[in-house]
Amino acid sequence: MTTIMITGANGQLGSLILENLRSRIPVGHIIAGVRSVEQASFIREQGIEVRKVDYDVPESLNEAFDGISRLLLISSSHTDDNVRLAQHKRVIDAAVRSGVGHILYTGFAFSQQRSDPGKPDNVHTLTEQAIMESGMEYTFLRNALYIDFVGVLGLKEALSSGELVTAPGEWRFNSVGRRDLALAATAAVLGEDGAGNHIYELTAPQTWDFDDLAEVLTEVAGKPVVHRQDDGIQHWIYAFMSKLDTSSTSGDLERLMGRPVTPLKDSILPFIV
Ligand SMILES: NC(=O)c1ccc[n+]([C@@H]2O[C@H](COP(=O)([O-])OP(=O)(O)OC[C@H]3O[C@@H](n4cnc5c(N)ncnc54)[C@H](OP(=O)(O)O)[C@@H]3O)[C@@H](O)[C@H]2O)c1
Fold this sequence. Notes:
This protein is an alpha/beta fold. It has a domain at 1-143: Rossmann fold (3-Layer(aba) Sandwich), CATH 3.40.50. Helix content is 37%, strand content 16%. It has a 7-stranded parallel β-sheet with strand order 3-2-1-4-5-6-8, with helices on both faces. Helix 1 (12-22) crosses helix 7 (178-189), helix 3 runs parallel beside helix 4 (81-98) and helix 4 packs parallel to helix 5. It is globular and about 55 Å long. The N and C termini lie far apart (44 Å). The model has no long low-confidence stretch (mean pLDDT 95). NADP nicotinamide-adenine-dinucleotide phosphate binds next to helix 1 and strand 5.
């Protein structure tokens, strides 16, 4: 019997994956790994077993991974990448000790391309490397930048003012919502892609830009919303995004989901209501 564990199951992505799994396989095959069991009563109420999985507490990991055949490690949300890497390595070591057969890891799309191949320096590449060295079978789910970032662009203001104002630059995005990523992760966790190792770049198959976003806002508003670049716009998000590859694309997400990605208009709705 395959027993699947999702770590970070109290989190946004983890709970969506749990929800998907629950509708696909008997709950007896699913185990939720959470840092705080007190906050997981909503999971237990669904009949899913909950185990404590704290990436900072190795003892919790040994017990938690007992009997797990497929483990989805959701990357830590800690803000310090050195801490995150140490946490991930603890999970990987414990998974090996517990005899986990297949580990899945949520990284970031195309982060490899920004690393020097001889000397990778980002947490996702280094975590993937540790997984490859562990000898476990693996699947790398390299997630696009979540669509949530549009939440800081002032979309509501743009709808009322008729102007979407962004910082200058050649911005292009492969971003999608967590629901799409969770659906793809669910298929991978269930092993629908077959045995062996897999690497997926989970992005939209085509990019969109701020002009496209203004067009969508125009549709929503029922009146023109134009896009204007202004170098007076200062927000940390632009510096953050300039360090990422947000524009490379892949068909992996749609292939794994078995359906097209959610249209931009639907994805941004939660950020304008
Ligand atoms: N692709 C992107 O654009 C993007 C953006 C942001 C984050 N991420 C990454 O994707 C991951 C999942 O996203 P999300 O939206 O689900 O984030 P989230 O809602 O913040 O969930 C993160 C989960 O990780 C758990 N966690 C954090 N530290 C832990 C530890 N030491 N031990 C065990 N669990 C720990 C949290 O536990 P608690 O519930 O106890 O806090 C939470 O359940 C994030 O953790 C982050 O690494 C990706």
